[in-house]
Amino acid sequence: MNTTESALGRLGELAIEVPSWAYGNSGTRFKVFGTPGTPRTVQEKIADAAKVHELTGLAPTVALHIPWDKVDDYAALRQYAEGLGVGLGTINSNTFQDDEYKFGSLTSSNESVRRRAIDHHLECIEIMHATGSRDLKIWLADGTNYPGQDDIRGRQDRLAESLQEIYAGLGDEQRLVLEYKFFEPAFYHTDVPDWGTSYAQTLALGEKAFVCLDTGHHAPGTNIEFIVMQLLRLGKLGSFDFNSRFYADDDLIVGAADPFQLFRIMHEVIRGGGFGKDSGVALMLDQCHNLEEKIPGQIRSVLNVQEMTARALLVDTAALSEAQRAGDVLAANGIFNDAFYTDVRPVLAEWRESRGLPADPMAAYKASGYQKKINEDRAGGQQAGWGA
User: Fold this and answer.
1) Going by DSSP bridges, is the β-strand pair 175-179/135-138 parallel, antiparallel, or unpaired?
2) In this structure, are residues 167 and 206 in contact, taking their beta carbons and an 8 Å threshold?
3) What is the rounded distance in angstroms from the CA atom of residue 289 to the CA atom of residue 251?
4) How far apart are the first and last CA of the chain?
């Protein structure tokens, strides 16, 4: 079996979770733009996500955000999703939009505010029982803007105590993944600003707690694949939030800003045992589509991940290891770059057709008439979005 055949054989293991909120309206800090056909309900978000999976075969689950996707009957929502051919995935909490969380949520010095935030996460765990979800993902906007504003060590202690209570509420097969972000909206200090803080907090919790790595949440020049390697080495990489950045947390289409970076990340994922259904590492998108159409934006995103994964699988690891052992810098770098510069798009088109998928999912979506139909069917009502 040649390298390409081997790579394509493993490509069937790729699964990318899409976020429900990517199908709603979002925007900059200054304006949220409405678009025709935007979902008004979580059911319509799931239907759009199911269309992405139908055309790509890459997106079998949809992440939910609470309370944005709150419903009365989560078991029925799970059944609805399964009827469309997708499952419900990660449950994402929200402690950053209520007035009470102005000075923090799980880290707040106000006991009643912390209680509210903890109870929200315990509610999310109950939702996970009904949806069949494995992961509870926590991202905190907690932090301060000015030196002396609060006790930064005390906030870490309160965070640890809050997370311990949430962790204790997890079921046997459930996990907690703690995301980090080095700034925004807190500008002096953020309570979970880096992978080390997330690692330290999750390590203290136990074996069901992991780090979530958002590819946009790093300072310029950060070697993200090094962090990926280290967390895999330590057994604490739980999930990814894939997106692209030019300046900060831009939430642009993954692979748009730096395809080579995405390739390098996927190489380390594969090298470190983080690729495949049994790896324990969830690959998820976390993006906004403010200018481009949302469903094609998600299709392009999962295809970008697939393409860079295919290229990463083409790395001749035996030859690379030999060159590395020999100290042949240029040979090693050349082997690495040869895989990246391989145009796998024609082979991927054939691979999709062999599985009953359209060779060109973007063109197939455009020809499907789905966008025209939802533009007409979803006229009126309140479009979903996070507001501004």
Assistant:
1) parallel
2) yes
3) 8
4) 54
186-211 pLDDT, tens digit per residue, is 999 999 999 999 999 999 999 999 99
Cα separations (Å) of 209 from 91, 173, 279, 311?
A: 14, 11, 15, 31
What percent of the chain stands above pLDDT 70? 98
Please give the Cα distance from 173 to 202 (Å, whole number). Answer: 16
Say what the alpha-carbon torsion angle 56, 89, 283, 385 is, to the nearest 10 degrees: 80
Nearest C-alpha neighbor of 365 from the set 306, 314, 297: 297
Quick count: other Cβ atoms within 10 Å of Cβ 6? 12
Torsion of CA 12, 17, 20, 22, to 10 degrees: -90
Altogether, the residues listed in the chain come to a count of: 388
Pairing relation of β-strands 189-190 and 175-179? Answer: unpaired
pLDDT value at position 387? 61
Radius of gyration of the chain (CA): 21
